[in-house]
Amino acid sequence: MKREFDTQKKEYTLSILVQDIPGVLSQVARLFSRKGYNIESIVSGETDKPHITRITIVLLADELMIDQIAAQCRKLIPVLAVKILDESASIQREFSLIKVRAADRNARDEVIQMANIFRAKIIDVSRETLTVAIFGDKEKTAALTGMLTDFGILEIAKTGTIAIERGRSTIYDDNKLKEEYNYGKNVL
């Protein structure tokens, strides 16, 4: 049965478990650049299992491209599991630090009030600036950033997207870890 693919590009989130070895992040990122895919966001960090790292990658692709890149990732030796996360069935967040110009008391008060509305935190105060920390989905951080633009944003630092599936589903579902099934990858 031939599968039809949607050729309209949209953001997809890939969650990848890899062995925690030197150069693995570079190896995964190279795969994307070789295929000509632009990574919108890439974040890596430790997991609940020792020597296993989780990489979360957001990219703009169509359905065929995302299926192909997921299949290519699965072929890499240090990759243990790959899952395409459905936006409606996953929690996706980013962390942002935003340094804003706030030269007088009125400006500082307004920035603090906005931060409170968005449940953000003021984490640094100087005579002329405030630094706001916000954790949330892309829409929330973009909305606060837009509101703070009027004050003069001096600098922004973002983590990129981190994501995990909602409910009982995990990255381990429908994926076999390399220790269980490692047929043919290390054969000469």
Question: What does this protein structure show overall?
Answer:
With 188 residues, the protein is an alpha+beta fold. The chain is built from 4 helices and 9 strands; from the N terminus they run E-H-E-E-H-E-E-H-E-E-H-E-E. The strands form 2 sheets. Strands 5, 6, 7, 8 and 9 form a 5-stranded antiparallel beta sheet that branches. Strands 2-3-1-4 form a 4-stranded antiparallel beta sheet, covered by helices on one side. A hairpin with a 3-residue loop joins strand 6 and strand 7. The radius of gyration is 20 Å and the shape is elongated. Mean pLDDT is 88; it is low at 177-184.
Structure at a glance:
The protein is α+β, with helices and mostly antiparallel strands. 26% of the residues lie in helices and 37% in strands. The strands form two sheets. Strands 5, 6, 7, 8 and 9 form a five-stranded antiparallel sheet that branches.
